[in-house]
Amino acid sequence: MGTLIVIIAIIGIITSMSGCVSSPTDDSELGSASGSESGSVSASSTSRASDELVVNVYSHTGEPETGFDPLLGWGCGHVNFEPLIQSTLFKTDDEGGIINDLATGYSASPDGKTWTVNVRDDVKFTDGEKLTAEDVAFTFNTAIGSNSELDMSNLENARAVNDTAVEFNLKEPQSSFIWRLRYVGIVPEHAYKKETYGASPIGSGPYKLVQWDKGQQAIFELNDNYYGQKPYFKKITMLFLDKDTAFAAAKSGNVDIAEIDITHANQSINGYDIISLPSSRAFGVSFPMQNNTGKKSLTGDTIGNNVTADIAVRKALNTGIDRKAILDGVIYGKGDVEYTGVDQRTFGNPEARIKDSKPEEAIKILEDAGWKDTDGDGIREKDGTKAEFKLYYSSSDQTRQALSVAVSEQAKKLGIKINLVGTNWDEIYANQYSSAVLYAYSSIDTFNLYQQYHTKEADDTYRNPGLYSNPFVDGYLETALRTSDQEQAIENWKLAAYDGNTGFGPSADATWLWLVTMDYLYAVDETIDMGTPEKNAGSDILGNIYEWTRTSATDTAQK
3-state DSSP: the chain helix, strand, coil percent, rounded to 5? Predict the structure, then answer.
């Protein structure tokens, strides 16, 4: 319990504990379980062995409310991450590509509806029982309908062909199914009970859970029987602190790794490196694509906006906004400019991007389309309609607020008035079909691209909030999803963004005003060598824990 004392010692207080995401919404809500604890013990100098690691990685877990059960969200969700305790069929390499883990290979039938995965025969669970294809099939069959984050709605069933081969039968072809195989940790059929597994999980991953002090910490120790490359660190203590408290913990020398808020980007901590790791976390403004004709959603929410439905307005904003200024001014340059929401991914299409920060060109687009300021109030109008609309953002997120303000200020110079509304997500979702929304998109699963831009009804879910509908884009998305050829899938994902004529990207329909992709920021003890972090996986900093070492071979004292 020594580490627990250290936690209480951190500046005397732990202000809140953040919970694991329980909904794969738009990556905007980091669902939390709040609590507080105070202690009178002051921070003191302690020591630990060089092969012991203390981390606070908010994006990796927060704290899983249902425990360390991959069938209830551990390891998946909007920030898919290395589950540590369980093995997965596939992993991600340093470049973001899919490589084998438990799997030794896979094949898909010509119609794309049957996937066969071959599994290693030298793997044991931490209780000594052998892992077989039966466990894999059990895991996925149990996952069907167990948790919305896993989205196994297209999986008919999984069947063990023999001890080392499992067959997945899909209802419809789905090229993106590979990502389901990538992130679901395998559980043992003989030892899985939904009610108790999360608190005492048995897995075959590099670590095993040995202690969970709810609301405070989880302690993992090396699995000596792990079949893969064994990590240098034999013990990981994971703290459950919010980012501000984690920053204070680093300043006190009580953690090796602490995820910190972007607002600390220009600060320094003695003995620590402040590093930023690229991710796929893109922020952008969704535009209602339909005119307001009086239609309502299933729950009676207004559909349509006569300003954003005009492609000239969307094109002008995409062209006139200075993304680099927003990148530097709002997130301190810790990220990159973003044009399509998936610029950083292998299925992103560079041809869909545009040249921005061209206000004169943007103004010409508006003028040519009939948007003129005839009354001199600084706001353009067309056919009696002012170039004015609301932009909703989460009031609990300072970064979203700052991004929204920056967009509003720049739009004003183009003659477009954007009225900002900071509020809760219930109200945001109720207005997403009639107003712009500052959303974030973090998934590296291509299926989410399909959901984001494929035609849908106003079903009051967050996906495709602008109700975008383009039959050509639908065709590309359907082909990409249904093919059994991953290369063909990637090509069609790209064509959906822009095919030289149409697409969802700013070169064509300009369905969103994507702004920036934000890095994840960490305070890292200068004695830690993190190897080569996975490309664009800043949210999964522990994904390459196998490569981590400490540069000092002797016991490292806390500073």
Answer: 25, 25, 50
Residue 132, H or E segment: none
pLDDT higher than 70, residue 395 = yes
Co-location of 119 and 264 in the same domain? yes
At residue 381, φ and ψ (nearest 5 deg) are -145, 160
According to the per-residue pLDDT averaged within each range, which of 25-34, 65-74, 176-185, 215-224 is highest?
A: 215-224
User: For the segment 489-526, what is each residue's pLDDT rounded down to a tens digit?
Assistant: 999 999 999 999 999 999 999 999 999 999 989 999 99
Of 146, 324, 206, 217, the closest CA to residue 3 belongs to 217
Tokens of 363: 């103004």
3-state secondary structure 55-122: EECCCCCCECCCCCCHHHCCCCCCCCCCCCCCCCCEEECCCCCEEECCEEEEEECCCCCEEEEEECCC
Strands 37-38, 13-14: pairing is: antiparallel
Between CA 24 and CA 64 the distance in angstroms is 14
The yes-or-no verdict on residue 35 having pLDDT over 80 is no
130 pLDDT higher than 90? yes
Q: Is residue 1 domain-resident?
A: no
The 10s digit of each residue's pLDDT in 238-278 is 998 888 888 999 999 999 999 888 889 899 999 999 999 88
**Is the domain of 141 the same as that of 228?**
yes
Question: Token match 């998109």: residue?
Answer: 441
Residue 162 confidence (pLDDT) above 80? yes
Nearest to 74 by CA among 236, 179, 199: 199
Assigned domain for 64 exists: yes
Q: 359-368 vs 311-320: helix axis angle to the nearest 10?
A: 170
- What count of other Cβ atoms lies within 10 Å of the Cβ of residue 134? 19
Structural domain for 505, as ranges: 282-518
- HSE-CB at 204 with a 13 A cutoff on CA atoms is 27
CB 274 within 8 A of CB 268: yes
H-run or E-run covering 178: helix 177-183
**300: CB partners within 8 A, 6+ apart:** none
Q: Which residues pair with 53 in a beta bridge?
A: 236
Please tell me whether residues 270 and 338 are part of one structural domain: no
Asked if 481 and 399 sit in the same domain, the reply is yes
* Structure tokens that stand for 336 in this block: 């990159």
Count: domains in the chain: 2
> Which pLDDT score is estimated for 204?
97
Confidence of residue 11 (pLDDT cuts 50, 70, 90): very low
Angstrom distances, CA of residue 297 to CA of 294, 303, 456, 457, 465: 10, 7, 12, 8, 11
Residues 394, 316 share a domain: yes
What are the CA-CA distances from residue 312 to residues 13, 341, 508 (Å)? 52, 20, 11
Residue 264 sits in the same domain as residue 312: no
Mean per-residue pLDDT for 66-76? Answer: 83
| Encoded tokens for 132 | 């077989």
Write down the pLDDT at residue 23.
34
**Whole-model pTM above 0.70?**
yes
Give the residue ranges of DSSP H helices in 191-341.
243-251, 311-320, 323-330
Backbone dihedral angles phi then psi of residue 124, each to the nearest 5 degrees: -125, 150
- Does residue 37 lie within any of the structural domains? no
